[in-house]
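Dear colleagues,

As part of the handover before I leave the project, I'm documenting each prediction I ran so the next person doesn't have to rerun anything. This entry is a single chain, and its sequence is reproduced below.
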Amino acid sequence: MTPENLFGLSGKTALVTGGATGIGRMAATGLVAAGARVLIASRKGDACVAVAKEINTLGYSGHAQGFAGDVGSEAGISDLISAVTSHTDTLNILMNNAGRTWGAPLGNFPYDAWEKVMSLNVTGMFHLSQGLSNMLAASGSADDPSRIVNVGSVMGEVPMGDGAYSYAVSKSGVHHMTRILAKEWAHRHITVNALAPGPFQSGMTAFAIGQDNGADRVGHRVPAGRVGRPTDIAACLQFLCGYGGSYITGAVIPVSGGINVATGPSIFGED
């Protein structure tokens, strides 16, 4: 391996759940740009097919393919695993991105919002990883392990509920499960890492960010002075999944523009 191709993914096959929109689409585009074959799955199969076609028109060296896949139930996970095995004999990369959120004021947060969020964000992530682990292990080696990248959140790192209490707790669970699986699967030649994104423009954050005017408003509150860009996610995936990331496991990477270390105003500073 030489320095000029540390982040190339030619010959690799990836699955990105929730890959038709938001961070999943950003990641899928970055993986295709690096040369990977990327399977894009979400509940809306037609949207996945359309997004795959759009990515394939960009002239990158990889290729995208879209189909339906639901990670929100035991039956859906089983069907998705069957679909993956029908499309490919090898799987080198799994990005667990499918997720949902729920917002309500403290004091009025509904009981069932916990189950709905946890069942997808935590339970689905774990069981899909477990169900595909043998396939990933068979594709990995000591020199070039298979990769799992879970999507957490900066809200799982720092104590801010912002009305999304079950979401924040679920993402903290994603981070901890990432570390557990990294420890337990290292000998199987599978690395397990997570991203902890801050604000990005996506369907999930449309209520707060919306279009560019909302992005500017939110960006002023981020230490780096802006919201995240698609290239920020794409670069992280190329790094973690390329040869250059082969010795990293159990990491939670804060793709948050410094929110993860923002502690408020200086206690002893001047006004």
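Strands lie at 13-17, 37-42, 63-68, 93-96, 146-151, 190-195, 252-253. The chain has seven helices and seven strands.

All the best with the project,
I.
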